Amino acid sequence: MEGLGAKQVERFFEMGILKNIADIYHLPYERIAQLEGFGEKSVQNMQAAVAASKQKSLENLLYALGIRQVGRGTAVALAAALQSDIAELQEWSVEQLRQLPDFGPVVAQSVYDYFHNENNLLLLQQLRDAGVNMQKTTTDAAADSASTAFAGNTFLFTGTLSQCTRSEAEKMVLAHGGKIAGSVNKNLNYLVVGSEAGSKLEKARTISSIRIINEQEFLELMAL
Fold it and tell me: What is the Cα–Cα distance from 70 to 166, expressed in whole angstroms?
């Protein structure tokens, strides 16, 4: 959130302003405005960013909760599997979670444990009461109507993309049945290279099976 980075969170925690995630939605802005380093404009930006975060997609919430083993791609898949509300996960068994793409026993157990922990459920209720979106949105539903054009293919991104964000690009991959890789290795199929690409590109060049493409080529692939 704009104006609420790691340093600000740490400072607010030390002051007792923040104790958990839900406290973000009850910040005492008038008090913050009196603190050194906070001007009227910065506090206004912070307040606007906090308000806007309430309407983020369900997949963003699932990722932001910091559930162990749940990365961006896992959060997207989890949100897409729900019918409408995050509360459904309280009823899911480990076996049901194991049926989702790439949900191994460790990931499934971690998600199950999170949604069967009383403290976590209390936090979720506090977030809901604060007006944070808990419902599946059109964005989350994108994977429901996904094609399988790239099923079994893994993608990895390096450098800065100019026509879309990294998150948007990853959603495209997942929506076409592909997977997001965590590193460059022989199992990687596509490395998408943006500007100022680094060591991932150099390593990929040593593995002949990896197809290295630029952002425009990637977007053309996704349009197939």
Answer: 17
CA pair distance 166, 125, nearest whole angstrom = 30
* 204: CB partners within 8 A, 6+ apart: 184, 188, 191, 210, 212
What is the spatial distance between Cα 42 and Cα 99, in angstroms, rounded to a whole number? 45
pLDDT per position as a tens digit, 149-166: 788 899 999 999 988 878
Distance CA 171, CA 157 (A): 12
How many whole angstroms separate alpha carbon 94 and alpha carbon 112?
Answer: 6
Residue whose tokens read 């059109």: 138
Measure the CA dihedral 84/87/93/98, to 10°.
50
Give the model's pLDDT for residue 190.
Answer: 96
| Of the candidates 146, 167, 142, 147, the residue with the CA atom closest to the CA atom of residue 157 | 167
Predicted TM-score (pTM) of the model is 0.65
Structure confidence at residue 181 (pLDDT): 87
Q: What angle do CA 46, 50, 56 make, to 5 degrees?
A: 140
- Picking from 155, 8, 144, 128, the residue whose alpha carbon sits closest to that of residue 61 is 128
What residues are paired with 159 via a beta bridge?
none
Q: In the sheet that 190-193 helps form, which strands lie side by side, from edge to edge? A: 179-180, 154-158, 190-193, 211-214
CB atoms within 10 A of CB 174: 23
**What totals of helices (H) and strands (E) does the chain contain, helices first?**
11, 4
